[in-house]
């Protein structure tokens, strides 16, 4: 039995998805309801996973721990396929996620409207470039994620799926949505989508 400390909609969702895929029972504890959470993770971030006497921090490290511990078909045991899976997880966690984080930080902390717009405009260029990378990966047999409707899979689930789902959900509430940030013509699930901010009107 695992204990997962989380915040709804945060990166901890990816860890929860992996636990579900591995059919592992877990107790969910909201970070704000945890006593002395800072003793589990001095950085104050989620996810945090407790596995017996072990306390694990950082999403990708936690996911790799789970994948190494439990038999699964989510990640190759070795070789290029394993390397690519880890690369995709880190892309979602360490590249895509911080790009959106900067937007939400600017919205909350930059009071000058002109300066805030500058941040949004600059971020739009960077985030569009990242989604183009996702598009290119999707062209190569959808290696980033099983994000197709149920019954329409082209391949099994992979570890990076949860991270990409989170960024796709964050995109919908992105403070710069409609200011030039697009999620890609095919969207994260490989289907054609109307760019954010343009609803075909």
Query: Which residues form runs of ≥5 with pLDDT under 50?
Result: 141-155, 184-201
String of helices and strands: EHEHEEHHHH
| Helix content percent band | 40-55%
The domain count comes to 2
- Rg, Å, rounded: 18 Å
Strand order of the largest sheet: 2-1-3-4
- Work out the helix count: 6
Dominant shape: flat
Q: What are the SSEs and their pairings?
A:
Layout: E1 2-6, H1 12-21, E2 26-30, H2 37-40, E3 48-51, E4 54-57, H3 59-69, H4 79-109, H5 113-139, H6 161-172
Parallel strand pairs: 1-2
Antiparallel strand pairs: 1-3, 3-4
Helix pairs in contact: 1-3, 1-6, 4-5, 4-6
Q: Can you give keywords for this protein?
A:
single chain, 201 residues, alpha+beta, Glutaredoxin, four-stranded mixed β-sheet, 4 strands, 47% helix, 9% strand, disordered C terminus
What would your notes on this structure say?
The protein is α+β, with helices and mostly antiparallel strands. The protein has two domains: 2-69, Glutaredoxin (3-Layer(aba) Sandwich); 79-172, no CATH class. Helices cover 47% and strands 9% of the residues. It has helices spanning 12-21, 37-40, 59-69, 79-109, 113-139, 161-172, and strands at 2-6, 26-30, 48-51, 54-57. The protein has a four-stranded mixed β-sheet with strand order 2-1-3-4, with helices on one face. It is flat, with a radius of gyration of 18 Å. It starts with a strand and ends in a 29-residue tail after the last helix. The model is unreliable at 141-155 and 184-201 (pLDDT under 50).
């Amino acid at each position: 039995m695992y204990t997962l400390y989380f915040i709804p909609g945060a990166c901890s969702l990816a860890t929860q998805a992996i636990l579900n895929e591995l059919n592992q029972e877990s107790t969910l504890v909201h970070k704000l309801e945890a006593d002395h959470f800072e003793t589990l993770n001095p950085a104050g971030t989620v996810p945090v996973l407790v596995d017996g006497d072990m306390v694990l921090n950082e999403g990708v490290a936690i996911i790799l721990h789970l994948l190494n511990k439990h038999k699964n078909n989510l990640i190759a045991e070795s070789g290029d396929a394993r390397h690519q899976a880890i690369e995709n997880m880190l892309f979602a966690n360490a590249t895509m996620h911080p790009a959106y984080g900067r937007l939400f930080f600017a919205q909350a902390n930059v009071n000058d409207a002109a300066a805030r717009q500058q941040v949004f405009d600059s971020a739009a260029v960077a985030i569009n470039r990242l989604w183009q990378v996702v598009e290119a990966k999707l062209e190569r047999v959808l290696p980033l994620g099983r994000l197709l409707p149920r019954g329409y899979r082209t391949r099994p689930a992979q570890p990076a799926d949860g991270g990409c789902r989170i960024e796709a959900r964050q995109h919908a509430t992105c403070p710069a949505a409609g200011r030039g940030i697009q999620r890609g013509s095919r969207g994260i699930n490989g289907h054609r989508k109307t760019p954010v901010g343009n609803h075909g009107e």
